[in-house]
């Protein structure tokens, strides 16, 4: 007997990107492990489908990406009728209280083939945010706790200084995300053989080799389960790349823009783990 | 008895930067191991002195830089009278037939504090050259041989495409630099425990750690002695960083722009060594 179709809804834990809330066109989840992302027009959707098709066939790198389940024609979240969606792994489906940070990598977020106007806008935003100075910027962050939550809005996040980024990466692994960061979960989440740093290290080694793709404006999404009493819950720490609408061919050249930014992020997270960041705050 | 003062002259083997030839203000050498670089006005000269003073006191990194011997007041090469000069190691003094390539690292060559006009000019040049696409560009190259020489002029080098850069890095280690590159010296110059790749690997490890400086518009200079019959001559392969007029404080952040470009250069040189570059040419 076929199981009844699960109703689609806007994801509860989305921290960045287009939102399906308030009748906008945005992603949907089925609550059973799939995340549906509406395909964008202007060729970007097709590019993302081609990218997922290719990358999910590469064993060397498939662990860095949400698993791909083809495309589906689904009712759009804005009520405009059937719309093609990417069917992807819902990265937070198995978490009951996920702490999430979305970090856009690269000091440059535009791609060389873009229009002059698009490049200028991205260039200015990269300068205004920490992209240019740090090689990455936080695009979204969410931590919920028995005692409260921390989910700064987009405007606040866009104004993050390098110092704010350091503090956010501490708060992300602290007992009470709203007050003095104590780094109580730093060793469990950032350290260890399955922790964030180990996974970013694997990603770095792949980026030192791969010359197939340049990942413009792509984010690293970090998720972990936060149990009561601010401990790391069951289920491993997840580190995945997301948002591939601006991936272009690498043409035999490594993605030096992504790799440089990734190395900078690795250093920032190492600094939180070792407490070295206190010298910089 | 004091040795007679050695006459100063324009360096014979300079491949990039300001030239002392034709009555311009440019660097001088004494033929006995010192290279004198006229201090630039507008604060850049002072910055370079401070940088050399600090960096030559750091044991972790001093091998990456020309040794520093203070400043000297010397007659300027343009005949304008006494002018302060940096006294540096003459990197080619011990070579009789040096092959030299000057590679400016970074997809971005401007520094954030620069004027809008300066940033725009650098941005456009980075796009026109291979800086933006490869994360580095060749600024000068010279190979002399019994049978001839290859020293393309600045205009030709500025027009180098990514493919031209691959070919230049092959020709740099080939028997006859003017014709089909055979990579005859690749293993000796690029490979081995004292070769270019080993030295760039050390440099990379330093850049993954150091957060003191951001090396804007800095070059990696590679020099080796070319004996008759296109073999590697006595004296080790040299790999040094040069030109620090636009170095700025790192403020606790790694130099992701330099590191990304350096990783791309390492990949290009590895490709020449393994012959993988033939797939890309």
UniProtKB/TrEMBL annotation, chains A, B:
<dbReference type="InterPro" id="IPR005522">
    <property type="entry name" value="IPK"/>
</dbReference>
<dbReference type="GO" id="GO:0005634">
    <property type="term" value="C:nucleus"/>
</dbReference>
<dbReference type="Pfam" id="PF03770">
    <property type="entry name" value="IPK"/>
</dbReference>
<dbReference type="GO" id="GO:0032958">
    <property type="term" value="P:inositol phosphate biosynthetic process"/>
</dbReference>
<keyword id="KW-0067">ATP-binding</keyword>
<keyword id="KW-0547">Nucleotide-binding</keyword>
<protein>
    <recommendedName>
        <fullName>Inositol polyphosphate multikinase</fullName>
        <ecNumber>2.7.1.140</ecNumber>
        <ecNumber>2.7.1.151</ecNumber>
    </recommendedName>
</protein>
<dbReference type="InterPro" id="IPR038286">
    <property type="entry name" value="IPK_sf"/>
</dbReference>
<dbReference type="GO" id="GO:0008440">
    <property type="term" value="F:inositol-1,4,5-trisphosphate 3-kinase activity"/>
</dbReference>
<comment type="similarity">
    <text>Belongs to the inositol phosphokinase (IPK) family.</text>
</comment>
<comment type="function">
    <text>Inositol phosphate kinase with a broad substrate specificity.</text>
</comment>
<keyword id="KW-0808">Transferase</keyword>
<dbReference type="GO" id="GO:0005737">
    <property type="term" value="C:cytoplasm"/>
</dbReference>
<dbReference type="GO" id="GO:0005524">
    <property type="term" value="F:ATP binding"/>
</dbReference>
<dbReference type="GO" id="GO:0047326">
    <property type="term" value="F:inositol-1,3,4,6-tetrakisphosphate 5-kinase activity"/>
</dbReference>
<keyword id="KW-0418">Kinase</keyword>
